[in-house]
Amino acid sequence: MADNEVGETGVGQDTNGRNGREAEFAAEWRDAAYNCFSSGHKFCREVCPVMQVTRNENHSPTAFHANVIAMEQGLVSVEDTARDYVHCTQCGACELRCPNTLFTGDFYRYRTRTVDVVKAMRALAVEQGVEQPAWKRWNELTDERRNEPVLGEVPVSQEHVADWAAGLELPLGGETVLFCDCEAAFYRTSLPRAVAQILKAGGVEFGLMREQWCCGGPAAEMGYIDQARRFAEHNVADWRAVGAKRILVLDPHDYIAFTEDYPRFFGDDFDFEIVLVVELVAELVREGKLALTQPVERVVTYHDACRLNKRKGIHEAPREILRAIPGLTFKDVDHVSQWSYCSGAGGGLPIERPDLTAEISRRRVERAAELDVDTLVSACVWSERPLSEQGAAGERPLEVMDLMELVARSAGLDGGEVRA
Amino acid sequence: MTAAATAIGDGVLDELRDILGGDEYVLPDVPARVNRTRVPAPFPVHRWGEFLPDVAVLPRTTGHVSEVVKLANRHGIPVVPRAGGTGLADGAVPLRGGIVVDVKLMNRILDIDLVDRTVTVQTGINMLTLNRELKQHGVIYPDDPASYPCSIVGGRIGTSGWSLIGGRYGHTRDLVISMELVLPTGEVIEVGDGGGRKVRKSSTGFQLKHLFMGHQGTLGIATEATLELVPRPELEFAAFFAFSDYQTAWEATGALAKSGLATLAGVVLFDEWKLAYLRRDDEAYIPQPHTVRAVIASAMYGARDEVEPAAKRLMRIAKETGGKYLGDEISQGDWASRHDRYATPLHGRLKDGQVVPMCWHCEDASIPYSALPAVREEWHAIAKRYIDRYGIFDDWGMFAYTNGAYKPWGDYLTEIDIGIWEQELDDENWAAWVDCKREIAEVALRHGGSITACHGATRAGDVELVPQEMGGGFEVMKKIKAALDPNNVMNPGKYLLDQAYEGENGREAVR
Fold this sequence. Notes:
The complex is a heterodimer of chains A (420) and B (511). Chain A has 420 residues and is α/β, with parallel strands linked by helices. Chain A is 49% helix and 6% strand. Chain A has helices at 17-37, 49-54, 61-72, 78-81, 93-97, 99-108, 114-127, 133-145, 182-186, 190-201, 217-222, 225-241, 252-266, 277-286, 306-312, 316-324, 349-352, 354-369, 381-393, 403-410; strands at residues 176-179, 246-249, 273-276, 299-303, 329-330, 375-378, 399-402. Chain B has 511 residues and is an alpha+beta fold. Helices cover 32% and strands 21% of the residues of chain B. In chain B, strands 12, 13, 14, 15, 18, 19, 20 and 21 form an eight-stranded antiparallel beta sheet that branches. Chain B has a five-stranded antiparallel beta sheet with strand order 5-6-10-8-9. In chain B, helix 1 packs antiparallel against helix 3 (62-75) and helix 14 packs antiparallel against helix 15. Chain B is globular and about 70 Å long. The interface between A and B is large, with 46 and 55 residues.
């Protein structure tokens, strides 16, 4: 549809550049949006972690699509609606629960694209100068420091990005490089230490980057596409400079960036093998290359990391590892039931709406507590801070550990002190 | 340029904020209004702006709802109740702006009484969510529409919903024991069969419970409901049978429904158009050979000791009436996914086979068993005429479901599913759709049926026929409306009830 054919509502006819851009945006996304709009049944509502708390239809995946049609009709502008799009953790539950994905997905190779729609609308907002204050600040600081301004004891700067590896004697570069997420590098350092020790114990050779910047994924999630791309370009250049061909990834958010954003940025030139540490460790255990011999006397349940379970369909490897740890009592909740679970820590939500993240985490921890467990195990470092806060706040404290921290213990590695 | 500014002044918005206790519960912003305008039924997208409310509010208590309704009466502002927004009769679509009372934040479970077997909830709760909590107590609330994962108790009351397993457990009207209700003037009352919040059968006074179900928000807003609890069924038995022609399958449907088996939850008859559609476009459906031209799905629920022998009887009846059992895979798998399947059609096909996104019209007439074969022929013929002429419709076939609670043999919820390519809607195409809809409803009335078994008859294409279907009862409806809602603030414009305020009944409609 050409801009000047949009009709009497005047979207495309306006000489105002922004409205023209909105019409273009609506034209680009209209079919994806209509696939939701024309169904309109809102199966997504009760699995969406944000909707479970706010119950406000503005925040529903249905609304995120319908707004595109309303924009085409000239009823809604990006300025009107940008704030609504903050209310999404990009967990992907809605896409899976959508009847369109469930029952025609395979046939038509179709999956409802809420996450893409949300990212695109956020990008349009930033492009049009409609910015969310906390996101703006977060991305400015990230740009300045090259890593996300996570709060912790380690100051965020390139000088300290590999402090977590002190004493581990990890080389620089090589064919295989371990990418360490910002939250792990500066806050939950016990995780990358555990991972590095596990990989060494399993005979995996790897090195670190010369200058590891943020993966750029969070910027892309919040709509700062240019910044995301600049960061991606830096990291890829660094990988090439040290001769890397294989990238080990310990955080699901980075995994999304490297398997979805980077290929979009670089096309066929992006020829790196991206390996998820959880899957690699499951393989090491399966093949007997990593012996889990030390009993871990804990009663645990597993929190399916949204970006693994819902976005990537990875739910078996973490369970396989948990079942291999001696001494552990594992009370599982199946991965489909966990479509409606989330920590609330994704998609920039904790930056703009920390209150919602806390409430989503509180509910997740409450579910775990109902199982009479002492530990909630996660495989997503970003989930672990808000879940830990809520775990500590409950009547009966619940410890939150990363799966790799548990593996390190069971493999007899020190793994570093786990951050409470 | 975006949607017009809200027609409600700052003074009213401030009053609403005072009542609701905060800015976050009063939403005059454009997306809040735009996204509380439509429901999944076919919608004239090109006229979206005509249906916007002026503000949405999110109450948390009955008191909030009552105060909002009183304010609406003081200022003459329309009030439109909205629960899940998943209804198919436009009950929650504002016709004259006003205040949308969105009850979704009223989603608390107030009381689980395992002794008198009731659960009392606020009406913003979803049934699947409720049952997740109830299940640990060995009971369920068996209101089980196709929209089970998304519809909400308040909307079930407002539409007087129908349950897929209603033959065994009853429908919404049988499962809601009593409710707390805000009347159109803001008073709060409790209504049940008589009095007594947990009493299932009473002869005291008028039977008001039925009056306050299925009114599509024109007679008030239910804010709390006391619901029936039943034992969690030990056994669910589903069986699908194939037939080579519709007539034989129709006869077998009747034989199964009349079996008198108390555990029988429902019998569903698929016609050949439906099978063709499933073969064509539903990858979850396990395809049947082309010799199969009709299918029956049936299901039983209850204690193992009841269901096992009854299932044997059911299998025997089906066999004796010409049915071929389709095996465990399709029987159990398809039945289990029925809830997810109703919304399958995200797309339809044009005559040349091109796939396009289509929205779904689900006709839901109640048709006497005897008239099903004739109605089926007439409905498909109507659909064909409109498909041929306009090129934006698609015929997705028919289902007929046993309709009566506990005695599921007399009439059937009869559904023809029609796809509509919304992207192409303009005034002409929309008018064509409404005409098609009306022709379909007229067939139902001509055969002694009712326009709707479960959605309501508030939409264009249906509503014009309501006085014909209701006869003298429509005059009573108007008198009740005028008496309970003297200012015509509750969902005005619905069910032609503006007529209640014309002539001797009183004043003109508010807006």
